[in-house]
Amino acid sequence: MDKATKAVAPARSPKTNSLGLEKNEYRGRPSTLCKGCGHDSISQRIINATWELGIDQTQVIKLSGIGCSSKTPTYFLGQSHGFNGVHGRMPSVATGAVIANRTLTAIGVSGDGDSVSIGIGQFKHVMRRNVPMTYIVENNGVYGLTKGQFSATADQGQVLRHAGVNDLAPLDVCLEALAANATFVARSFAGDAKQVETLLKAALNHRGIAVLDIISPCVTFNNHDASTKSYAYGKEHQISLQELNFIPSYEEIEIDEYDDEREVQLHDGSWIVLKKLDEDYDPTDKLAAYRVLEQGHRDGKLITGLFYIDESSPDLVEMLNIVDEPLATLPAEKLRPSRESLDKLLAAF
Amino acid sequence: MSVLVKEASPVPGEHELRVNDFNINVATANGSGSQTSNNILIRTLFKMGIPVTGKNLFPSNIQGLPTWYTVRLSKDGYLARREGIEVVVCMNAATVAEDMQNVMPGGIILYDDSLPVAARRKDVTYFPMPVKELVKEADLPFNLRDYVANMVYVGFLAYLLELDCDQVRAALEWNFEGRPKPIALNHDMVLSAYNWAAANVINNQPYRARAMTGFNEDKILVDGNTAAALGALYNGVNLVSWYPITPSSSVAEAVIKYGPQLRRDPDTGKATYAVVQAEDELAAIGMAIGAGWAGARAMTATSGPGISLMSEFVGLAYFTETPTVIWDIQRMGPSTGLPTRTSQGDILSVYYLSHGDTRHIVLFPASPAECFEFAGTAFDLAERLQTPVFVLSDLDLGMNYWISDKFEYPKKEMDRGKVLSVEDLDRWGAKWGRYLDVDNDGIPYRTLPGTPHKLAAYFTRGTGHNEYSGYSERPEDWENNLARLTKKFDTARELVPPPIIDEVEGAEIGIISLGSNDAAVEEARDRLSAAGFAASYLRVRALPITQSIRDFLAKYDKIFVVENNFDGQLEKILVNAQPSAAPKMEKVTKCDGLPLSARWITDSILSHLA
User: Looking at chain A, which terminus has fewer C-beta neighbours within 10 angstroms, N or C?
Assistant: First the structure.
């Protein structure tokens, strides 16, 4: 691999990251979710990934809508500002916040009800705008907080105690994201710590919107073996599309050469290196992404991995052509045009 | 070319002329380009120094339905809508019979001579205009013919009313922003119509527009929505997120128009603001709230249906104490209602918008100059009080041209409110809590995301929270929070723009009104005074109501609350605030899609006094 470089990682205690912080400083409040909830695993992956990347928590914003998944931002990155919005509308709040301060790293956490049922409109439009953020859908196909109703990702034919049988085919988070022109689309399984963390690290370094559909079983309401969002199903049917390694450019390490790899450079110069199970899979080929997702549905298999990535498209704040510094903290002299300019305007009225 | 049948009446003498005191009504079809001609007309009159007001009565339609533009000339400086038409221009076959019928006796009718004249009245004078022949003669490109045809009536009016032709030319240059081709094309049409009229028409009618002084000096002609946009740009707006809806769209569009020349970094060419057209009003307010939370000055502009959609998000912003500004350019509702007609029907719904115990700061600008000023006031109040602030304009103020005082350059520094810095956090340490009432004014301190300090972060949530922004379902936390929000609302009473009060010595009656009714109320006061009823006047400029409003309510024996809605929404708020004044209060309300007129206000009040 010609991009591999030989560099020595900076010497530090293994218990602290590049900022000299221990991992427990990246924790949040204790979780109030059910014991064994897949969402808590994901929170732990976020803690691990941000700690390992040495991300400054004070420069992160955590945004969510309403639902079990949307509660989780309280449970990680306790030194980051969080915003728990209204149901299905997290994307618009995130959009406003990143425009106000483009230097922040935005992590959105949502669920299948929040993003695919009530919030499908904002979900689609935040993709279309390529808002620079990581968008995690903690997908369990069921409404937990209201005690077990179907969401739009529930399986066809699935049975719930009160709701009965679901006659409708599910919406696929990744297919919806692709169709809305998302520039990073991936899926994983909450129980796959390594893959979730790797995808998270890649997502956090992506230019534009990065969607992570993470199948996260609901231990209370939707963990029947028949559900595609159950632990048993996930473990049996999960097929990894690729194995992934993520190498931040500021911590270059020597890696072994792989014959079957496909490298993708991220916006900040870092590289994501994919190890493919399928030798032909090219994550820059959108048609291939549609095909593999649709094939997964036909085969009843849960394909995981990075389906699509496009690092060439400008994100929303680039398209808006706003100044490099945060709009929110611009000094008054940059916000108020001169008296002369007003006189000139008024002369024309 | 047709030969005009000259009317028998003689040319009036100077003392028989009616100068600068009549209404012109132009009847056209929507989408025919008449707006340009009407703009030229009103701007010419304005630049001649004549107090003038224009009301565009247009349909919810892109092309074809009838449109009327009524111009009032008032030498005495009255700028409200006035009933009665003295001069009508008929360009629309669909309405020509009715339009001709509606002219006052003694009035004049200019009409496209290809239109049928159903019943020839004896008490008016007819001036047929050979529109088709003049357009044909001009040899215009086919696609421009209908459009430029409207310049024919400008030329005719220029001749009959004796408009200043230099000002007509200047108005064309202004309208087309100096582009030579359309200026020449339109000006040629005006001139050819003028010349034809001069050669073929005896000007035996009494209406004249004469240049005058004493009123328009140092004034501008502008619509309220442009003023709002400029006010936002001069007061640091960082984000305008919006969804198109009549009659508010021109707020965002004016930001898009003027932003590049006012708010770009001269070195990099990059903007210090952004405009995002959202997918709906929910996203528009969501973006504004997200940006406000992150420390930016963010606003959205909408109308009634958009307000309804924003309801849940506004409750969140109120409860999380997030600054944002919402312009509501009111129209007739509920539902789609009459989307192109004016109303003040959102006062109650906006004041209490959302579920739970919510109430909001609402500003009521009455003129374009005040729209400009309140754009800044709204941001200052939103950031000072950490809450959504509404500005209630309406279609009449927002979309019609008004003669306005020049916009005043902001006198005060922008108030960015209680925001903690890194140094503050060092000093305060763990004592800082997002919802702590440190200063006993109900207003807590906030930190902005991105503040590089370990203690800066807090969690913003619509769920119950304690003073340290922690999740809480404790009854006492909930009640304490509501009590503090009430205290904050009381603090707001001292900060919002106070009412404008004009008291007449010895007056026994008081009038309370708001917003764009101002011109009609002032004119009505003159009429009432002439009828022997002097009236003091209080113009409400903001909610919550202030002590000065309470004092006014207590002082007068009879109080008329004048509003452009059906139920008397401001009156209900006043009654609620001061029940003891209820028996003295009389609502004077009208809701027919038109701006209030002074005559209607006067007659309504007099009927109560009789």
Answer: N
Give me the mean pLDDT over the A315-338 stretch: 98
Beta bridge partners of B328: B302, B392
**DSSP classification of residue A300:** T
Q: Please list every residue in chain A whose beta carbon sits closer than 8 Å to the beta carbon of residue B176.
A: none
* Cβ pair A56:B453 closer than 8 A: no
Same domain, yes or no, for B231 and B288? Answer: yes
Residues B56 and B125 in one domain: yes
Residues B412-422: tens digit of each pLDDT: 999 999 999 99
Contact B271 A73 (CB under 8 A): no
For B111-152, write each residue's pLDDT tens digit. 999 999 888 999 999 999 999 999 999 988 888 888 899 999
Contacts of A326 in chain B (CB under 8 A): 294-295, 450
Best CATH choice for the domain A23-347 from the list 3.40.50.10240, 3.40.50.970, 3.30.450.20, 3.30.70.1560: 3.40.50.970
Task: Mark yes or no for CB contact B449/A337 under 8 Å.
Answer: no
Kindly determine whether residue A322 and residue B289, on different chains, have CB atoms separated by under 8 Å. Answer: no
CATH number at residue B51: 3.40.920.10
Select from A29, A86, A101 the Cβ nearest to the Cβ of B449.
Answer: A101
A-chain residues near B268 (CB < 8 A): 323-324
Can you give the CATH number for the domain in which B574 is found?
A: 3.40.50.920
User: CA of B603 to nearest chain A CA: how many angstroms apart?
Assistant: 36
- Whether B237 is covered by a domain: the verdict is yes
Domain co-membership, B524 together with B574 = yes
- How many CB pairs lie under 8 A apart between chains A and B? 220
Q: Among partner residues B296, B450, B459, which is closest to A103 by beta-carbon distance? A: B450
Same domain, B398 and B429: no
Backbone angles phi, psi at B468, to 5 degrees: -105, 20
* Mean pLDDT across chain B: 96
**pLDDT tens for residues B205-237?**
999 999 999 999 999 999 999 999 999 999 999
Amino acid at B481: N
Within 8 A of A328 by CB-CB distance, chain B residues are 238, 291, 294-296, 448, 450
Token pair of B316, please? 């969140």
Q: What is d(CA B161, CA B164) in angstroms, rounded to the nearest whole number?
A: 9
Q: Which of B94, B98, B91, B199 is nearest to B151 (CA)?
A: B91
A103 and A330 Cβ atoms separated by less than 8 Å:
no
Do B241 and B232 contact (CB within 8 A), yes or no? no
* Alpha-carbon gap, residue B431 to A149, rounded angstroms: 43
Matching residue, tokens 């509404």: B390
pLDDT for the residue numbered A12: 54
Which candidate in B219, B239, B297, B412 is best for mutational testing of the A interface (most A CBs within 10 A)?
B239
Residues 6+ apart with CB under 8 A from B105: B123, B124
Structural domain containing residue B230: 222-405
Q: Are residues B70 and B207 in the same domain?
A: yes
Domain locations in chain A as residue ranges: 23-347
Identify whether B2 is part of a domain.
Answer: no
Q: Tell me if B6 is assigned to some domain.
A: no
Q: What is the pLDDT of residues A262-281, one digit of tens each?
A: 454 444 555 544 443 465 78
- Domain end point (choices B441, B476, B495): B495
Question: Which residue of chain B comes nearest to A77, CA vs CA?
Answer: B457
CATH number at residue B366: 3.40.50.970
Residues B245, B332 share a domain: yes
Q: What are phi and psi of A111, to 5 degrees?
A: -125, -175
Count up the domains in chain B and report the number: 4
pTM equals: 0.94
Asked if B451 and A339 come within 8 Å (Cβ–Cβ), the reply is no
pLDDT of residue A251 exceeding 70: no
Name the residue with higher pLDDT: A4 or B194: B194
Kindly tell me if the per-residue pLDDT of B165 is higher than 90.
yes
On the question of pLDDT at A176 being above 50, the answer is: yes
Q: Which of B310, B302, B392 shows the shortest CA–CA distance to B344?
A: B392
In this complex, the residue of A84, A86, A337 whose CB is nearest that of residue B313 is A86
Please report residues of B whose CB lies closer than 8 A to that of A97: 290-291, 293-294, 449
